[in-house]
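Re: that backbone. Tokens:
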């Protein structure tokens, strides 16, 4: 892994932590504790690609983000949804989709140049 500036390293740690925490608290809430959560980090010349796979029920990330952002109050006051906002603001690309093997994949790309 290339040496990242401190602020970029912190942002990457935060988005991984928020994504993983959301899987544990929401996607895997009613699943057995031994249900795997897969994490993959790929380093490219100009960006990092982070994928987190879960086995919970899928949800509509775009609709959820839209709902949070259109609310009248400060979205950072809502503890339960702060993680999605952090991931949205701190990534350059953020996707969530259901895969053919019945897993969900949260894909986060972060430019490093």
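Recovered sequence:
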């Amino acid at each position: 892994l290339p040496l990242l500036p401190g602020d970029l390293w912190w942002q990457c740690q935060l988005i991984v932590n928020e994504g993983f925490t959301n899987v544990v608290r929401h996607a895997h809430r009613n699943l057995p504790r031994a249900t795997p959560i897969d994490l993959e980090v790929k380093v490219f010349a100009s960006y990092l690609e982070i994928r987190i796979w879960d086995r919970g029920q899928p949800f509509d990330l775009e609709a959820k983000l839209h709902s949070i952002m259109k609310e009248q109050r400060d979205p950072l006051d809502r503890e339960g949804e702060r993680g999605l906002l952090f991931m949205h603001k701190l990534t350059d690309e953020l996707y969530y989709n259901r895969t053919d093997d019945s897993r969900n994949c949260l894909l986060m790309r972060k430019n490093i140049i």
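The helical segments are 6-27, 61-70, 82-90. Residues 6-111 form a domain with the Heat Shock Protein 90 fold (CATH 3.30.565.10).
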